[in-house]
Design brief:
single chain; alpha/beta; Gyrase A, domain 2; Rossmann fold; four-stranded antiparallel beta sheet; four-stranded parallel beta sheet; 13 strands; globular; binds arginine
Amino acid sequence: MSILSELSEEFGAAFVALGLDASDGEVAVSQRPELAQYQCNGALGAAKRAGRNPRELAEAVIAGLPDSSRFSDLSVAGPGFINITLADEVLASYVETIRTGDGVGVMPREAPARMIIDYGGPNVAKELHVGHLRPAVIGESLKRIMRALGNEVIGDVHLGDWGSPQGQLIAELEDRQPDLPYFDAANVGPYPVEPPVAMDDFNEMYPTASNRAATDEEFKERARQATAELQKRRPGYLALWQHFRDVSIDAIKAVYDELGVSFDLWHGESTIAELLDPLIERVLASGVARISEGAVVIDVALPDDKNEIPPLLMAKSDGATLYTTWDVATIQDRVDQFDVAAMIYIVDARQSLHFEQVFRAARRAGIVGEDVLLEHAGNGTVNGADGKPLKTRDGGTPLLRSLIDDAIDRAAQRLAENDLASEYSEEERSEIAHLVGLAALKYGDLQNHRASDYIFDLDRFVSFEGRTGPYLLYSAVRMKSILRKASEQGLTPGVLAPATGEFDRNLMLALLRLPEIVSRAAEHRAPNHIALYAYELAAEFSRFYEHCRILDESDGSTQASWLGLVELCLRQVTFLLDLLVMEVPERM
Ligand code: ARG
């Protein structure tokens, strides 16, 4: 159990003994560390409810605690706050329990929940771009956080693979290579195993095709038909589309791999293609859907809505299904296949209306019960210095690949400027630059609240000072090197002794904060809590290391205890960085 939950339980029991609520006993980390380590503010509210004097009540709570010798200070402050400071022996023994255990103090939930996190959303035939960065790193981080808490998490990439771009590409390729066997309606296969296109072809073909579809009526109509026929599973189109999908997945996976982002499911919009007709029949038959100008729609507006929520479009008048339809059907599929308690979507916040409609429609249609959580945890935008969505110099959308490459190049430069890793082999140096560059990029993103926009400032992200990924990696590497040096001198980490002063005491207190931070990040779907805490822990370590000269210490047990703190701190920082999808090099 964490220190906060243990103290809260103890204080709660003291409130209950006075005829009050256990929840009044909630203990938090003190807002005023110079006055106390922890505080309990429940006496104020409880006294008000019970018509009692808050200071007297707070005194009574203190008197009701089983063992006050465990505290070096328990006192009532102001109108009735209880200030709590642990005795140094007790503090050390809490931290020692974590050090000698094999974890970091996180208590997995007793009843794990199974959930799906949807955090990819790339589209077939298009390279990953800047818009995919936030869902990828936030989603991957959230998946790891939820797993650390004992949940069973399924990550789904949810590929965009069933929409009009597919038909546009088919029509475009037919114009370019009409003799390919896929276009002959009489030919039902088998078809060539080799794909007729590569990712590089798409980079040129995709914009051309979508341009033509926007400007050329005849082409647009052919593309629309191709999409419709693909959705009806015309064999040649389906075979061609399968090539598009395979080629794209290879390219997309390579970038996600490099980022350390992975998915359990490579499902897509097409995964639920077979469910669409029966679903539309069902919602029409049950009266949940109605026909409007030939289209199938579901009304989702509610009387209390502040903004108008338009009906959800399930099928257009030509029978074609759309993005909304696929997301509704995907919910059905996820309920049927995976029996999940929650579906969390890390998708651009600008899609909030879409998800509101989809969730309401799915509920109205009885596809998903109230017991299953549906949540769009929307992400903010990556902006340029002008505060508008980041663009390349020529006004295009930056590719994720090039953001990664830039970050790694800049990291290599910074390492050189700081004379870091200079004496290592070329190969090791480039591996380090790789890890540092990726950490810069990811921390630059994850340090911001999920829903906020942020300004992409690579110069700041790659700095070794301040709140950055490189600073955190450097701190962890320093802990490793201290332990390595100690071990070369025959010194080993040992039992934690009571703090000798404020620096080791503060580090111990910081180490004990981890469990609540992880829970908070999970609860708010907000890895920035972890990002910030990892920085604070590293900074606390740095103050400790500056003042407690471990390797020069003459008292053997103090020295072993300090090394024990380094050991635990490294374990915790490594754990936190892993939750932030960052990997620590051996040395720098
Ligand atoms: N492919 C979509 C897009 O590019 C994002 C998909 C997000 N996930 C979902 N289940 N809708 O906008």
